[in-house]
Design goal:
single chain, alpha+beta, ATP Synthase, domain 1, 2 helices
């Protein structure tokens, strides 16, 4: 019998994934971590980054996540994502345009803009771009 985890990934708008997996690698707030069968109970906040799962058939799936919470308990993993996207949902031209726009805003130091918020938006866009580059979809 395979040693599998039950995984549910949900966002505010949809159930993104539900099924059996072998492992999940997540961008925790204190660094990346991996969860496998019989992992100790855990609750972690998630940063902007790549979420990787390996399903029961050894198929890897990658997502761009923009924060959230991951909980592990009794071989059940729940991911509550602030925003999560599959590579198929991403558009390279929109990403590049957003990066250019945010970099321009930072460079011009527009009044009324929060530089930290713009840097976070840039981090999200660069994460999306990195995911597409990793998959050769650039």
């Amino acid at each position: 019998m395979d040693k599998l985890l039950d995984l549910d990934i949900v966002s505010p708008t949809a159930k993104v994934y539900s099924g059996k997996i072998k492992t999940i690698i997540a961008p925790g707030s204190l660094g990346g971590f991996q969860v496998m069968f019989n992992h100790a109970p855990l609750v972690s906040t998630l940063n902007v980054g790549k979420l990787k799962i390996v399903d029961e058939n050894e198929k890897e799936k990658l997502y761009a996540i923009s924060g959230g919470i991951l909980e592990v308990n009794n071989n059940k993993v729940s991911v509550l994502a602030e925003n999560i996207e599959t590579p198929e949902e991403l558009n390279i031209e929109r990403i590049k345009a957003a990066i250019a726009r945010y970099e321009d805003i930072l460079h011009r130091k527009e009044e009324g803009t929060d530089p930290e918020e713009i840097r976070l938006l840039l981090k999200i866009e660069y994460n999306r771009l990195s995911l597409l580059n990793k998959l050769g979809l650039n």
